[in-house]
Design brief:
It contains one helix and two strands. The N and C termini lie far apart (about 60 Å). The chain has a two-stranded antiparallel ribbon. The protein has about 55 residues and is mainly alpha-helical.
Length: about 55
């Protein structure tokens, strides 16, 4: 493999990992938020910087 092919392969691997992580986090984030909303329904939580209702 030449340096160019190694660089291209490394770049493709990094982009694939980043894209996969983004897809997973975008799917998990809303699910966790919905689960938290169900758990805390009707409960007011006070934090030092925000009030959650």
């Amino acid at each position: 493999m030449t340096t160019s092919k190694i660089g291209n392969t490394f770049t493709a691997i990094v982009c694939t990992v980043l894209f996969s992580a983004t897809c997973v986090l975008s799917a998990v984030g809303p699910a966790q938020a919905a689960d938290t909303a169900k758990t805390n329904a009707g409960v007011v939580t006070v934090s030092a910087d925000r009030i959650y209702a």
